[in-house]
Design brief:
259 residues, alpha/beta, 60s Ribosomal Protein L30, Chain: A, Alpha/beta knot, 2 domains, 7-stranded parallel β-sheet, 4-stranded mixed β-sheet, 11 strands, 20% strand, elongated
Length: 259
């Protein structure tokens, strides 16, 4: 059992709390039983797995799977595990995995989200989770958004990070043009739009653009939109959370597609 906070592996994993170090090591952190289950369900290769003895006893089957998928497994003390975790109350297991092994390509068909400069990891993770739940084809995120492998993004995605095709767009304007060339309609919410979001024909292949939490969608991308829609708000309410807005449109699209 690893009990020293100065152990080289412990110190290496702790460094992965920072985006700079995740890029340097080309690794990211997976925290918690549910994320490990989702990673194992798609056979995502793991580098290191550390868990407490109690967790190992309680999750024998998952432990056996993890042992098969991992380069190294270690039993650690509760104190050591807590020092490596980004959560206040870790549930007993933490792992590292290599970045960039998601093989799924985001198709220019069906229903796709395009996210510009999203900064809150909870918002990004929630939109990944919601897009997967609503049957979206995939999601694009601009390169200046919060890191896809931020631990909070993974947790907020509830494991759908491993299942939904996700791409980082070097230039979202180029991505939008490719979607248009593939006969997708480009949609965004605009406060003073004539149409409400449920009046859109969602049976057409659609790319939904969502902007930054504070600044909204940039002028350059707004000018590329084919269909502007509004989400009606009660008087005195300025706007909705970006993840809530995305969810409303994704599920209206699903409703129309299934009707």
């Amino acid at each position: 059992m690893l009990t020293s906070l100065q152990n080289p592996l412990v110190k290496q994993i702790r460094k992965l709390h920072s985006a700079k170090e995740r890029n340097k090591q080309n690794l990211f952190i997976l925290e918690g039983t549910h994320l490990l289950e989702e990673a194992c369900a798609v056979d995502y290769p793991l580098i290191n797995v550390c868990c407490t003895e109690q967790w190992q006893i309680m999750h024998r089957e998952l432990w056996n799977t993890i042992t098969r998928l991992s380069d190294r497994v270690e039993i650690v003390s509760a104190e050591v595990l807590k020092s490596m975790a980004t959560t206040v109350q870790p549930d007993g297991v933490i792992a590292t995995a290599a970045k960039g092994l998601q093989s799924q390509e985001v198709p220019f068909s069906g229903l796709v989200l395009g996210l510009e400069t999203i900064q809150d990891p909870g918002n990004l993770g929630t939109m990944i989770r919601t897009a997967a739940a609503a049957g979206a084809s995939g999601l694009w995120v601009s390169k200046n958004s919060v890191d896809l492998d931020n631990p909070k993004v993974l947790r907020a995605s509830a494991g759908q990070w491993f299942r939904l095709p996700i791409g980082v767009s070097e230039d979202l304007k180029v991505t939008v043009e490719k979607a248009r060339n593939a006969q997708m309609q480009i949609i965004a919410t605009i406060p003073n739009a004539a149409l409400t979001y449920w009046e859109i024909d969602w049976k057409r292949p659609s790319l939904i653009l969502m902007g930054n939490e504070g600044a909204g969608l940039s002028k350059e991308l707004t000018q590329m939109v084919d269909v502007q829609a509004k989400i009606p708000l009660a008087e005195g309410v300025e706007s909705l959370n970006v993840a809530v807005s995305a969810a409303l449109m994704l599920y209206e699209a699903q409703r129309q597609l299934n009707s």
